[in-house]
Amino acid sequence: MRGRSLPGDTAAEFTRAIAGLREARLRPEVRLTEVPAPQRIAPHAVALSGEVVGPGGEEELASGRFVLLHDPSCPEPWEGAWRAVTFARAELEPEVGTDPSLGEVGWAWLIEALQARGLRYCAEAGTVTRVVSERFGGLADQLPTVEIEVRASWTPLGGDLGDHLLAWSDLLSTIAGLPPLPDGVVALPGARR
After folding, report:
1. Is residue 2 one of the residues assigned to a domain?
2. Is residue 185 part of a domain?
3. What pLDDT, on the 0 to 100 scale, is given for residue 24?
4. What DSSP string describes 141-183?
5. Structural domain tally of the chain?
6. 180 within some domain
7. Distance of CA 132 to CAs 91, 148, 154, Å?
């Protein structure tokens, strides 16, 4: 993870944030890959693509992206210098697609993930989208599929920014259908590619 050339204090702050992301202890089912960060949204950014894999590590259960933006000018909508911008997507059981509360549930999964880690944040915003695909003609014998997409952003307030990555990975694991880790169980680091 690289940052661009930054002034002294900002460089140290961004370097600490990246170190926090690298030190985050993810579930073994969550795999991260650094991807190109957006260039025009903020002066400094890092982006990670993630996926949750099933037993054996072959089947993708969920995927998403975590982007951490830093703008020392503290843009007004952010209400701070940092912004986490995230996306999480997974296929769900077809009968879930008709549940009118799916959007509220998807958003609650995010808020619960942040709160479960005791994180402080503000200016949260986002959307939850359900995509129902029905097949016709030669594909009519296949069941409909339902996908959920949670797009969210929030401003982290203090603490280790790696914990915000962990909260996002908790959301990703939840929409993938993984059970929560029991209290006191620490996940070993996942394989990083």
Report:
1. no
2. no
3. 92
4. TSPPEEEEEEEEEEEE-SS-HHHHHHHHHHHHHHHTTPPPPPT
5. 1
6. no
7. 10, 9, 27
Q: Give me the amino acid identity at 106.
A: G
The strands making up 121-133's β-sheet, listed across from edge to edge, are 30-35, 44-53, 60-70, 82-92, 145-156, 121-133
Question: Which tens digits make up the pLDDT trace of 157-171?
Answer: 987 899 999 999 999
Q: Are 24 and 13 in contact (CB under 8 A)?
A: no
Residue 143 lies in a domain: yes
The answer to whether the beta carbons of residues 94 and 147 sit under 8 Å apart is no
Q: Per residue in 90-134, pLDDT tens?
A: 999 888 877 889 999 999 999 999 999 999 999 999 999 999 888
pLDDT value of residue 129: 94
Q: How confident is the model at residue 28 (pLDDT cuts 50, 70, 90)?
A: very high
Q: Within 13 Å, how many C-alpha atoms sit on residue 76's CB side?
A: 0
Q: What domain range is 81 assigned to?
A: 8-175
Question: Which of 35, 17, 53, 30 is closest to 169 using CA atoms?
Answer: 30
| DSSP symbol at 193 | -
